[in-house]
Amino acid sequence: MNGLLGKKLGMTQLFGEDGKLERVTVLEVGPCWVTAVRREERDGYDAIQLGYEPVREKVLNRPRLGHLRKAGVPPLRLLREFRGPVGELEVGAELRVEQVFEPGQIVKVSGTSIGKGFQGTIRRHGFQRGPETHGSRNIRKPGSIGAAADPSRVFKGLRMAGRMGGGRVTQRGLRVVQVVPDENLLLVRGSVPGPRGGYVEVRRER
User: Fold this and answer.
1) What angle is formed at CA 141 by the lines to CA 136 and CA 147, rounded to 5 degrees?
2) Is the pTM of this model over 0.70?
3) Can you give the residue ranges of every domain in the chain?
4) Which residues are paired to 110 by β-bridges?
5) Which molecular-function annotation in GO is an example for this chain (predicted)?
C-alpha cells in the first residue's frame, strides 16, 4: 500500500537535529479501512479503495451504508481509490499511519485548494496593472482581448477574470519529518493544499 487518507490540521515549526528550524504541516492520517479491492483480471486494473473518518449512520445514504456493511467496516465519510499493486490486503483490513509512512520518505499530497471566489486578472494570473496617474483609466483592467474585424472573435483559452481556487492540487516532493503513531499524526516539511480541516490524500513518491 502506497498511500492513506487524512485531514490537514495546520502548520507549525520544528527544530531539526542540526538545529535548523523547519516549517511543517501537521496531517492526521488514518486510520483507514479497506472497503474494496480492484483486481486486473476482474476490474481491468489493480487498486485499493480506502475509507476514512467514522461518522453516524444517518449521515450516509443507503447505498453507501450497504457497501460499507458488506465490507464489514464502520460508517465512513470519505472513500477514495489508490491505484497500484494490491498485495495481500483484504477487504475490512485497517491501515494506520506507521504501517505506510516513516521519517525521511518523500510523499505527494493531494487536496482541494482554498477557494478565492471571482478574481480579476491581476490576482488570478499575475497581470501588471496600468499607470495610476496622468489621467489613466486603465489601472486594473485586463487590456485588449483580441483584434476587431479579423478574426472577429476572442480566442479560446485567453487568460481573463474568473473563479480562482477550489480545485484539486497536488504538492510533490514533501519530506516526512516525523510520525506520531499514538495520535495518527504525520508531519511533512512545507505546505499542503487546502484549508485547515480539509481532506487530503497522501501517497509515497519514493
Assistant:
1) 100
2) yes
3) 15-27+99-130+158-206, 31-95
4) 170, 201
5) rRNA binding
